[in-house]
Amino acid sequence: MAEVILMPRLSDTMTEGVIAAWHKKVGDTVKKGDLLAEIETDKATMELESYQDGVLLHIGTQNGGKLQVNDLLAILGKQGEDVSALIAQHSGGAAAPAPEAAAPAKEEKPAEKPAEKPAEAAPAAKPAADVASMEEVVLMPRLSDTMTEGVIAGWHKNIGDAVKKGEVLADIETDKATMELESYKDGILLYQGAKAGEKIQVNDLLCIIGKEGLDVNAIVAAVKNGGSATPEAAAAPKAEEAPKQEAAAPQAAPAQAQPAQEVVNEGRIFASPLAKKMASEKGIDLKYVKGSGDNGRITKVDIDNYKPSAAPAAASAPATQAKAATASAPVGQVSFEDVPVSQMRKTIAKRLGESLFTAPHFYLTMVIDMDAAVAARTRINESAPIKISFNDMVIKATATALKQHPQINSSWLGEQIRHNHHINIGVAVAVEDGLLVPVVRFADNKSLSQIGTEVKDFAKKAKDKKLQPADWEGSTFTISNLGMFGIDEFTAIINQPNACILAVGGISQVPVVKNGQIVPGNIMKVTLSCDHRVVDGATGAAFLQTLKSLLEEPLRMLV
């Protein structure tokens, strides 16, 4: 009997998935454990394996198509098995009609005798249907729930290059990170939808991979014009292709001029997204750059220290001259540079704007005497397996205080307020393009050494853009610490759906009054931002009092 496969929920925030690539076609035999498809969730691209044997009888959408969680994804069964009832049952009359409408049209055609009417209707529908089923067409994938467009950070293949399945085609900058897009088939890269640095909307044409002689112009016209490949539309891609081929020539020239250089990397090159982007901007071929990172990974430092040969230097001369011209601008001349907004920065702007203007914020600031914490940290680090920071102590104290004040550890859900029994603390980490918030899970049950190890690991992963969706999902409270940057006090915007966020300033040595005398003391200011829909002033103040007592007597948080 045929088995229905629904779109799985692959993350706690996922509401829909995008088919990055089908690895099986309708009619293919599928075995248990075979890779069916790659599904782009709100945070990452994941592989979906088959859990049974059978023949793939139906797919819910083509490459680049979106499906809501629990929508019909595929049907597996026996060859020739009738699955029309299952399609109708799970499609609710929406998705099913498209595949089934094509079948009846063919069946009614012989019955109607006048073959000329169907023949007239066929050309209008044919191009759209052909494009939808073409494996050569690669659309811009949806790599996060908030992504509406992607920026090409850099192409790894040029037009005319041979592409193999699994090879990296391009680096795509999303709102969360820069991700590598791998090819899911063999062929030749015949068309690029945008150059490095340009934007492409989700589900717009990214590239075409196929065999030599494929009519690229017809495909481009059909995709961009909804299937109406007019002579004007067909001419446009030709006009676009000419400059692209011309642009490819300068790229090829440095490669020919560099035979004297030693090739350091062959095959797939491992480099951080930032290093790839910098290399693309500087015209540096990564196969000549020796990486200093783990397993030879190329980092930003390697690009900065790379000494290009005469050919690349000549290629970069125009850029150098342009910079020199800018630097020598006459005094008093108005000058500026417009920098495109990164996808991450767009998402930060959108989400924090929504948080600030929808959640009624109020702020509570408290001064904490850190003398005992400073002394305790010195003693702890004498025997601790890893160096403990003040931030680690703040996380531990916060987790302990949250156990006593569960209202602070809550989430606003619209019609409900969720009081979380677990304590997952998000720690804001600054990266080049913005801010990421990895989560220390069950922080109240972890030692200072465990917290310190996790935070350092998260910080390294964030800067290398290696954080996974599981690393930043599920926080119940957030801490943002700018003390290491010399900031004494600030207010933070709540990271929804959390009800509160703690802004931590630096430790300052100032004169304080103790026992009636003025003595030097170490103080730290913290500010709690609260969502007034969930937390009242007295509740927030009580939490801060508990946090203050734990940091002023650090032994209490170890009990």
UniProtKB/TrEMBL annotation:
Binds 2 lipoyl cofactors covalently. Its EC number is 2.3.1.12. One of its GO terms (cellular component) is pyruvate dehydrogenase complex. This is Acetyltransferase component of pyruvate dehydrogenase complex. One of its GO terms (biological process) is pyruvate decarboxylation to acetyl-CoA. It catalyses: N(6)-[(R)-dihydrolipoyl]-L-lysyl-[protein] + acetyl-CoA = N(6)-[(R)-S(8)-acetyldihydrolipoyl]-L-lysyl-[protein] + CoA. Pfam families: 2-oxoacid_dh, Biotin_lipoyl, E3_binding. PANTHER family: DIHYDROLIPOAMIDE ACETYL/SUCCINYL-TRANSFERASE-RELATED, DIHYDROLIPOYLLYSINE-RESIDUE ACETYLTRANSFERASE COMPONENT OF PYRUVATE DEHYDROGENASE COMPLEX, MITOCHONDRIAL-RELATED. Belongs to the 2-oxoacid dehydrogenase family. Residues 2-77, 135-210 form the Lipoyl-binding domain. GO terms for molecular function: dihydrolipoyllysine-residue acetyltransferase activity. Keywords: Acyltransferase, Lipoyl, Pyruvate, Transferase. Residues 105-119 have a biased composition (Basic and acidic residues). Residues 94-104, 245-259 have a biased composition (Low complexity). Residues 90-127, 230-259 are annotated as: Disordered. Residues 270-307 form the Peripheral subunit-binding (PSBD) domain. The pyruvate dehydrogenase complex catalyzes the overall conversion of pyruvate to acetyl-CoA and CO(2). It contains multiple copies of three enzymatic components: pyruvate dehydrogenase (E1), dihydrolipoamide acetyltransferase (E2) and lipoamide dehydrogenase (E3). SUPFAM superfamilies: CoA-dependent acyltransferases (SSF52777), Peripheral subunit-binding domain of 2-oxo acid dehydrogenase complex (SSF47005), Single hybrid motif (SSF51230). Its cofactor is (R)-lipoate. Forms a 24-polypeptide structural core with octahedral symmetry.
